[in-house]
Design brief:
The protein is built from 15 helices and ten strands. It has helices at 2-7, 10-33, 47-57, 60-63, 97-104, 148-159, 176-184, 195-203, 225-230, 232-251, 253-263, 272-282, 291-304, 320-325, 329-334, and strands at residues 36-43, 66-73, 89-92, 110-119, 121-125, 139-142, 169-172, 190-194, 207-210, 214-223.
C-alpha cells in the first residue's frame, strides 16, 4: 500500500526517482573506479591478438570491469611460461614446447581458451596404401616438427587409431611440393596436403585419401592456475570481454578493420582486409578448447621430450570458464540468432 501511496504523490515520486537516479550514477561510478587492472601480453600477430585489440579499443573489456595493460612480446616463438612472468594473461601461439615442457616439469600454466581452424586436408599415400591405418610402421612426411602440417598429420593418424609417437616415423620433409615428390618416389608413404595441393597432386597420379576437416590450433589464451584460482572473477570478466570482442569482430567489420589498421603492419604478405577475412572465417562464438587439436600439441611435445609423453589435454587446460559461458544468458544476449557451440 505504501508503494502505491508514494507513486501517487508528486513529492514522493520526485524523491523516489531522485534516489533511484543517484543510486544508478553511484553504482556506475563505483563500477568504473572498481575496474580490475590486469596485464595482458601478446606474442605475435595472430587471431587472438586481433580479437583482443578490438576488445580493448571498443571498450568491451572495460564494460566487463577490466582495465587492460597491454604488453607486446617480440619473441613469439618462445611464447610460454617465461612470457607469463610479470603478466596475468598471455595470448599467443609460438613453439608448443614452450608450454608443454615447463608444464611437464610442474610449471604453473594452463590454457583457458584457444582458436582452432578447421581445414580440409587430404592424406597423400603410396599406391600400396588404401587407408590411413595402413601407415603403421611407415614414414609420414611433414614440413617441420611442430608446424601446422605436423599437427594436422597427428590428428589424422590418431583418428585412425595410430599413435604418432609409436606407430609411424615422422619425417621433416619440407613444403607440400617436396612432400608430394617424396611420395611419388616412395621415400615417404604418407603426407598431409592441403585441399588445393592435394587436388594438383591427384592430377599427377598421387593417391589421396580423403579425410574430414581437421582442427589445428592457431592461437592460445594462457594464464597460471594460481591466478585463475586467486582471481577467479577477474578471469571470468576477461573471458566475457574476450567473447564480446569476438562478437564485435565478426559483426562490426568496418569498425574492427579500422582498429586493426591502427596496429597491424601491412607488410606481412596480405592486406589487413584479407587478414580480417581470414580471421573472421575462423572465429566461433567461444574460443573453444578442442581436444583433438590440443592432443596434437601434446604429441609434438612427446616426440622431443619424454616428460610430456604422459600429458593429457586435461593436464594443460582449464575449461570451466568456457563451460560457464556455454548456454549462458550473456552469450545468448550477444547473438540474436542461434549459434552452434
Amino acid at each position: 500500500m505504501g508503494y502505491f501511496y508514494i507513486l501517487n504523490r508528486r513529492p514522493g515520486l520526485t524523491l523516489c526517482l531522485a534516489l533511484i537516479t543517484l543510486a544508478f550514477i553511484a553504482s556506475h561510478t563505483w563500477a568504473a573506479d572498481d575496474a580490475k587492472k590486469i596485464r595482458l601480453a601478446y606474442a605475435g600477430w595472430e587471431i587472438g591478438t586481433a580479437v583482443a585489440y578490438v576488445g580493448v579499443d571498443s571498450g568491451l573489456f572495460k564494460k566487463n570491469g577490466l582495465d587492460i595493460e597491454e604488453i607486446p612480446i617480440r619473441d613469439n616463438l618462445s611464447a610460454g611460461v617465461q612470457s607469463l612472468i610479470g603478466v596475468d594473461v598471455l595470448i599467443g601461439f609460438g613453439n608448443p614446447l614452450a608450454v608443454l615442457q615447463p608444464v611437464a616439469g610442474g610449471a604453473d600454466v594452463t590454457l583457458v581458451g584457444s582458436h582452432v581452424s578447421f581445414d580440409q586436408y587430404g592424406m597423400a599415400v603410396a599406391s600400396s596404401i588404401s587407408s590411413v591405418k595402413e601407415l603403421r610402421g611407415k614414414k609420414v612426411g611433414v614440413s617441420a616438427l611442430g608446424a601446422k602440417s605436423d599437427l594436422i598429420a597427428r590428428v589424422i593418424l590418431r583418428r585412425a587409431g595410430l599413435d604418432p609417437a609409436k606407430d609411424v616415423e615422422m619425417v621433416a620433409a619440407g613444403l607440400s611440393p617436396a612432400r608430394a615428390l617424396a611420395i611419388s618416389k616412395n621415400l615417404l608413404q604418407g603426407a598431409p596436403l592441403s585441399e588445393d595441393v592435394a587436388a594438383e597432386a591427384k592430377k599427377l597420379g598421387i593417391k589421396i585419401l580423403d579425410v574430414k576437416a581437421v582442427p589445428a590450433v592457431t592461437d592460445l589464451i594462457l594464464t597460471t592456475r594460481s591466478f585463475a584460482k586467486r582471481e577467479e572473477e577477474t578471469v571470468r570478466r576477461f573471458m566475457r570481454g574476450y567473447v564480446a570482442a569476438i562478437h564485435h569482430f565478426v559483426s562490426n567489420r568496418d569498425n574492427s578493420l579500422a582498429i586493426l589498421k591502427k596496429y597491424f603492419p601491412s607488410s606481412q604478405g596480405m592486406t589487413v582486409d584479407a587478414m580480417y577475412d581470414s580471421f573472421a572465417a575462423q572465429l566461433r562464438p567461444l574460443p573453444e578448447l578442442n581436444n583433438e587439436a590440443i592432443q596434437a600439441l601434446v604429441d609434438v611435445g612427446a616426440a622431443v621430450d619424454q616428460r610430456t609423453k604422459s600429458l593429457k589435454p586435461g593436464d594443460i587446460t582449464e575449461p570451466r570458464f568456457l563451460e560457464e559461458l556455454k548456454g549462458s544468458k550473456f552469450l545468448k544476449d550477444l547473438y540474436t540468432e542461434k549459434v552452434s557451440l
